[in-house]
Amino acid sequence: MNQNNTLLIESSWEVCNQVGGIYTVLRSKVPSMMEKWKDNYLLMGPYFPSSANPVFDRTEEDTDDSVMQVVLKMRQMGYEVFYGRWLVTGRPRTILFNPYSVYGRLSEIKYELWDHHGIPSPATDELHNQVVAFGYLMKVFLGLFSQIEAQNGTKIVAHFHEWMAATPIPAIRREQMPIRTVFTTHATLLGRYLAMNDPQFYDHLPFVDWLKEAKYFNIEPAVRIERTAALASDCFTTVSQVTGKECTHLLGRTPDVMLPNGLNIQRFTALHEFQNLHLQYKEEINEFVMGHFFQSYSFDLDNTLYFFTSGRYEYSNKGFDLTLEALARLNWRLKQENSPITIVMFFITKKPFKSINPQVLQSRGVMEEIRQCCSEIRKQVGNKLFYAAAVGDGQKMPDLSEFVDDYWKLRLRRTIQSWKSKQLPSVITHNLEDDSTDEILAFLRNSGLVNKPDDRVKIVYHPDFIAPTNPLFGIEYGQFVRGCHLGVFPSYYEPWGYTPLECIASGVPALTSDLAGFGDYVLQTIPDHDHRGIFVVNRRSKDYESAAIQLSAYMYNFIQQNRRDRITQRNRVEASAEIFDWKQLRVHYDKAHEMALK
Asked: What is the percent of the chain where pLDDT is above 90?
């Protein structure tokens, strides 16, 4: 492929608009794409001021630029279009379209979709309105832009991600624009719905009536967009073999190329520092754990391991159900063995809540008061001990309690006594809007896994994502990951799965499943993955019970390691991250773009 006379345009709903995992795909891939394409690489996305303005740098210069010429022409036509740079590593050229600027023509746009491509449009679905308006503006841009570039002898490859950016594809084909198209579905919309509602999804997949099911779930317009784009594109792709099977049965076309997701590993690289970062952020988690549990009872933090799972709240799809079942089995086994090890398992997800649990928040606040008291006492003791050592004869160690003022002794004693409680530590940090129907809480209550003193597995269910502004943790999500010992993600439905990949990039061992695209890719490409600290649970050919036993065994074997073994394993995990760098995985995108041109 001659890059000098070829332009690559990538389009997604998540360009300058972070709403899901595709944002990570695009943002992390930009440096690798810019390395190859330079300014022959262009991105298109929707313009929503609140999400775009902080990360988008507009430009109004260089009217000789063919992109700017089209932007100015579209503005004359009454459309709101912005041109500039996305403020990520590589700063790619980016065009953003305001969907609302074409809302006056929505009826006409929807009729055209129906008349030309058989795609129906609901009357009152705001997301669908935004999607078709965005698609129309992209189609207008590509039509004008391709005319200019065709005169210059320039070839154009337009790569569209997901159904929300896909409506221009059938129009490009129908109008015979001089553009080659690539369509990537990162997860079939219908597949996600079916998996959430059918425990035998993979067995039933070959027999699904896609139209009947799309109508049943009331998602027919979006599914038709996705299906039409898959059929009309020059090159059809998805992210894993697992999702490829869905595409064959639900979209009517088997993908031409698989595009595994990577990361810009350089952003995670800490070289020799990553072990120190683990210790640093583990101390932050230690503080939370002391505040959450030590009010009721204590345990040895030197013999405590931190496991976590995170992601969208999809109880079965994300494997939360299997994780809980395995933890209950692990808890019973460790109690039978009278193990000195404690596991604190964090469930980090997003669920509607009213507030942070006042008891949890108060306990954290009192812990801070205890810290301040201890800090003042340490200053007193340090200064007075130094003086006593200097003037003494060294025959007898001074009584340190004599160095502490009665005020600070009394204050510390009162604070500790007011803090202690006979209540069990809460398994959840927030008050949910409806905790009576929450599946995680239901399992914990039914199984008795409720943070009893003799439980070797403790649970912290945190229904909000971790951020520095979070009063319970006060650290970034990536820092939290580095402080943990093991990530647990045995998904039932996961087209790819960035969470275990982010663990590996941070030097943290991770569990995944062979039904996750990432896990399937690991099985195909890394024969010694267990040795590298990447564990894959077999869910494709094993039933739920057998998978739970295997997952519990993986976790049990992990905690049998001593500290030196875990350090060695973290080194191997961190060294494996390079396999998933975009510099290694961009070749699959190159193959798709070359195939489209041919």
From this structure: 77
The verdict on 214 and 306 lying in the same domain is: no
Q: How many CB atoms lie within 10 A of CB 63?
A: 9
230 and 333 in a single domain? The answer is: no
CATH of the domain at 285: 3.40.50.2000
Distance CA 307, CA 554 (A): 12
101 conformational bin, left if phi > 0, alpha if psi -120 to 50, beta if neither: alpha
Pair 403, 381: CB distance under 8 Å:
yes
Q: Are residues 249 and 343 in the same domain?
A: no
| Domain identity same for 197 and 59 | yes
The domain in which residue 77 lies consists of: 3-264+586-597
3-state secondary structure 294-340: CCCCCCCHHHEEEEEEECCCCCCCCCHHHHHHHHHHHHHHHHHCCCC
| Dist. CA 250–CA 214, nearest whole Å | 10
Q: Which are the contacts of 271, defined by CB distance < 8 A and separation ≥ 6? A: none
Q: Do 85 and 217 fall into the same domain?
A: yes
321 and 288 assigned to the same domain: yes
The whole-number pLDDT of residue 553 equals 97
Q: Give the integer Cα–Cα distance in Å for 539 and 192.
A: 17
Q: How many residues does the chain have?
A: 598
Residue 274 has a pLDDT of 67
Q: What is the percent of the chain with per-residue pLDDT over 70, rounded to a whole number?
A: 97
How does DSSP assign 81-150, residue by residue?
EEEEEESSTT--EEEEE-GGGGGGGHHHHHHHHHHHH-----SS-HHHHHHHHHHHHHHHHHHHHHHHHH
Structure-derived torsion over alpha carbons of residues 164, 169, 174, 175, reported in degrees to the nearest 10: 100
Do 248 and 270 meet the contact criterion of CB atoms below 8 Å apart? no
- Distance (Å) of CA 534 to CA 426, 506, 538: 31, 13, 13
- For residue 392, is pLDDT > 90? no
Alpha-carbon distance 502 to 263, whole Å?
8
Structure tokens at 223: 């599914």
Whether the pLDDT of residue 1 is over 60: the answer is: no
156 located within any domain: yes
Tell me, yes or no, whether 523 and 472 share the same domain. Answer: yes
Identify the residue whose tokens are 């953003």. 96
Tell me how many domains the chain contains.
2
Q: What's the mean pLDDT when you consider all of the chain?
A: 92
Asked if the structure places residue 411 within a domain, the reply is: no
Nearest one of 502, 490, 486, 358 to 430, comparing CA atoms: 358
Determine whether 286 is exposed, middle or buried from the number of CB atoms within 10 Å of its CB (0-12, 13-18, 19+). Answer: middle
Which amino acid, residue 334? L
Do residue 240 and residue 346 come from a single domain?
no
- For residue 395, being part of any structural domain is answered with no
**Quick check: is 383 in a domain?**
no
The amino acid that residue 547 corresponds to is A
Task: Count CA within 13 A, CB hemisphere, residue 242.
Answer: 29
Whether 69 contacts 83, CB under 8 Å: no
End-to-end alpha carbon distance in the chain: 10
Q: How far apart are CA 343 and CA 300, in angstroms?
A: 11
